[in-house]
Amino acid sequence: MEELQDAIEDAQYVSAIASVEDGPRPVLPWEIPGEAELARWKDGLLASHAKDKDCIFPSLPTPLGFDWTLAQALGFFLFSAYMKESVREYVEINFIEEVIRWKQSKGRLRAEKTAYIVINYLTPLAESSTVGDPPPELAVVTPNAIASPPTTDNEKKGHKEELGPMSKIHPIVGPPKTEITEYSLRREPTDFSPQVMQELHARNSGPIKSCIGVGGKILESIMSKVDFMRNLPGFGSPSILPKEGDIPSNNAAIPPVPPRRWASAGDVVVVGGGSAARSQSLSTMKSDMRRLSLMVSQLPENLFDDAELIVAENIREKYWDGFQKSEHHSKLLNFLWFQDRTVVEEDFFVMRVLGRGGFGLVTACKKGTSGKLYAMKVMNKKRIKLKKAEKLTLSEQECLASVNSPFVVNLKYSFQSKTDVFLILDLMTGGDLSYHLSQKGCFPRDECLYYSARIMLGLQALHDKGYVYRDLKPENCLLGEDGRVKLTDLGLAVKITPDLHGAAGTRGYWAPEMLERDDNGKRKNYGRMVDWFSFGCCLAEFISGTSPFRSQIALDFGLEKGEKTKEKAIDCATREMQPVFDGAKFDEDAADILRRLLDKNEVTRLGFHGCNEIMSHPYFRHLKWDDIISDRMQPPFIPRTDVNAASQSEIGTFAEDKAFHDTILTEKDEALYDNWNFTNPKAFAEEVIEFLIYERETGKPLLPIPQNPTCCCTIL
């Protein structure tokens, strides 16, 4: 009977993850507060703001005001929807959206976004035009401003490398209307005095303006800074410029391009004209790409700030009052109130068991209101107390809550019951890298580069927050359904302190300084460099299939040194053995980076000055770091949509023995978890925005799916 139940749960789990692309499938309605309850919540929000403003953040924007609302991803999304759906004015809010995207971009992508913004929103109008009218005869770049590489076979068949989406131009009326499809688009709040705003409006005055009302010295300043792009082949169609991979490694300084006049009133801007670029020799293309990369990197980060502020103030004056009276605003308040309520176990529907930790099980689960799939890590308070692991448990929750990185499994919610504490995390359905290594023997070079690059950035994200991971191994590197890898299991991650010492993690991945003792027999202190040693062990394992200090060679080395046990032999090899990298498996660059990562001396070990010096190693010379960092690179391997985990019978359950039953939780024990409850505002906003995008695309409200009334509960 248990096997039948396991099979049912497996089928439900596979069905759930397979249907993710079909959109959210909620099973619970969103709770809506009453007027009195909503009023109390707003009063509490304002009171908390007043306290923080006086004590910590004097320039904090007032809650529920214009700047505060647009600084929230959910607030920005609903305000944008109000303008496009209710007011039917999209040009100005689209401009603000594009500026935000521009600030998030780098390199080639920033060049494309620069051209897109200038051509669509900052081309001067004819003197006879009215602000808001489209430029006459303007060939405008289409909404698909970013040329993404084809990801499917069908897309590849119809893809022409020299012609990207930006070259598919159409003479249309005004800038194109676009919708927000991201889950985290938000506008940073501004804090300008009335005097500064008055000066800004004075700089914006002049007879000629663009379609968003920007002109005068503000427009002149922007045009002068981006003038160099007019001289590059294919301007306005950056997707036909040479690829970043064609840039030589030595980015020497390049003489400036002679200036060319921008379009003035009455001029016709023609976008495209990429035939010259396509006929260039490779050397000329490389030169153009070097020039573009160099010059775009020199564009100031505040390039569009004045123009964006002018537009934002216009929007505030014309549309903010109407938004506050709209259904979109009411919806925003209801969602934000729901975000601040206490999360409870009943908000989630449990599916298949995925694994077992030290204090409880890890299961797949579904958030009832949004239909979002997550992993639920349950830890029993009694088991935590029995193992005296309260400090490590609290540290794990604190670390997960503070590190918000695409390269680390993120904490979405944490809550508790009388008996357990819960962590709701990213659901990584693709299995761990140890499992995939066992299937493949070793990884191809492109997978080694991709996985190690993301793992490196995950470690750096932890280090930036002052944590050392201490448990890096392939088992703790999980693949998502899309093939993206993230670090998981931060149970041994701790704050870096001057007196940090003691071996932690998995033998064979420990750094030698974890095992060393001083003349008095006391363990030596260590810091973040232990993670880079473990990183070297993992990279070697990705390339060859075997970790250097968990191999037969390492075991024999330790035994020959006189160690009597397998464990001591591995420790001896970690401290003293210099691995040899077979040329049949490791090329020169791979062998060199591994020797430097596995340096016994932490001071001379690669990574001592941060991950940038690892990124600069020749082993990674062909990797497009901008695409990795921005999370735009397509993974080289997509795992099967299947149960990439052990069977539930193998995972097992926890036995409740006499020691467990005899353990009593006191008020002091309970007090340890007073600050455990947590809601990640970014994760909540993503849930809701995904929900709202699905409603927008289907054109109808997304209602909960009725529960199956039969004896078997089906999770859709």
Automatic annotation (TrEMBL):
<dbReference type="GO" id="GO:0004674">
    <property type="term" value="F:protein serine/threonine kinase activity"/>
</dbReference>
<keyword id="KW-0067">ATP-binding</keyword>
<dbReference type="GO" id="GO:0005524">
    <property type="term" value="F:ATP binding"/>
</dbReference>
<feature type="compositionally biased region" description="Basic and acidic residues">
    <location>
        <begin position="153"/>
        <end position="163"/>
    </location>
</feature>
<protein>
    <recommendedName>
        <fullName>G protein-coupled receptor kinase</fullName>
    </recommendedName>
</protein>
<keyword id="KW-0418">Kinase</keyword>
<dbReference type="InterPro" id="IPR008271">
    <property type="entry name" value="Ser/Thr_kinase_AS"/>
</dbReference>
<dbReference type="Pfam" id="PF00069">
    <property type="entry name" value="Pkinase"/>
</dbReference>
<keyword id="KW-0547">Nucleotide-binding</keyword>
<dbReference type="InterPro" id="IPR036305">
    <property type="entry name" value="RGS_sf"/>
</dbReference>
<feature type="binding site">
    <location>
        <position position="377"/>
    </location>
    <ligand>
        <name>ATP</name>
    </ligand>
</feature>
<dbReference type="InterPro" id="IPR045270">
    <property type="entry name" value="STKc_AGC"/>
</dbReference>
<dbReference type="InterPro" id="IPR016137">
    <property type="entry name" value="RGS"/>
</dbReference>
<feature type="domain" description="Protein kinase">
    <location>
        <begin position="348"/>
        <end position="620"/>
    </location>
</feature>
<feature type="domain" description="RGS">
    <location>
        <begin position="65"/>
        <end position="128"/>
    </location>
</feature>
<dbReference type="InterPro" id="IPR017441">
    <property type="entry name" value="Protein_kinase_ATP_BS"/>
</dbReference>
<feature type="region of interest" description="Disordered">
    <location>
        <begin position="142"/>
        <end position="171"/>
    </location>
</feature>
<keyword id="KW-0723">Serine/threonine-protein kinase</keyword>
<dbReference type="InterPro" id="IPR000961">
    <property type="entry name" value="AGC-kinase_C"/>
</dbReference>
<keyword id="KW-0808">Transferase</keyword>
<dbReference type="InterPro" id="IPR000719">
    <property type="entry name" value="Prot_kinase_dom"/>
</dbReference>
<feature type="domain" description="AGC-kinase C-terminal">
    <location>
        <begin position="621"/>
        <end position="688"/>
    </location>
</feature>
<dbReference type="InterPro" id="IPR011009">
    <property type="entry name" value="Kinase-like_dom_sf"/>
</dbReference>
